[in-house]
Design goal:
Pfam families: AHSA1. The protein is of the alpha+beta class. The protein is built from four helices and seven strands; from the N terminus they run βααββββαββα. It has a domain of 101 residues: Alpha-D-Glucose-1,6-Bisphosphate, Chain A, domain 4 (2-Layer Sandwich), CATH 3.30.530. Helix 1 crosses helix 2.
């Protein structure tokens, strides 16, 4: 039986280099990730942190960084008590040129069967990645409210 996972594929009119920068630059992530910023030096073995309103919401370790093709890190949630007990998961971004576009595949796995975390990321990633695509292609955000990150997850 396969383990629970989240997979999202998007085609974005940009370059692999610009997409890599969007995924790894705090200044850029703050724009489309609802104010959150990523922090790391993006070297294998280095720590990764996601900060929202000055608070570390998620952290991990860089497992692979091959700019501008592949980024892979572990991901441990800290913000919501209901999710803190879930195991460390993993996020893989695969960036592939596709004619004048870039194909971005996001794989988030390592979830437990029946856990709440898969539901939480299944709502969050589409909102985040839709904002990313819009920002790269048009320079504008879609206006998705931050509450969309928790839709379907009863976070207190």
């Amino acid at each position: 039986m396969s383990k629970p996972q989240f997979v999202y594929v998007s085609y974005i009119e940009t370059t692999p280099e610009k997409l890599w920068e969007a995924l790894t630059s705090s200044d850029f992530t703050r724009q489309y990730w609802f104010g959150a910023e990523v922090r790391s030096d993006w070297k294998v073995g280095s720590p990764f942190a996601l900060l929202l309103d000055g608070e570390v919401t998620d952290s991990g370790e860089i497992l692979e960084a091959d700019p501008p093709r592949r980024l892979f890190y572990s991901f441990k949630h800290h913000k919501f008590e209901e999710l803190r007990g879930e195991p460390i998961s993993r996020v893989v971004f695969t960036i592939e040129p596709f004619g004048p576009l870039v194909r971005l595949t996001v794989l988030h796995d390592g979830f437990v069967e029946g856990g709440k975390y898969l539901g939480a990321v299944s709502n969050g990633w589409p909102a985040i990645l839709s904002q990313l695509k819009s920002l790269l292609e048009t320079g504008k955000l879609l206006g998705i409210p931050r509450a969309a990150l928790n839709k379907g997850f009863d976070a207190k």
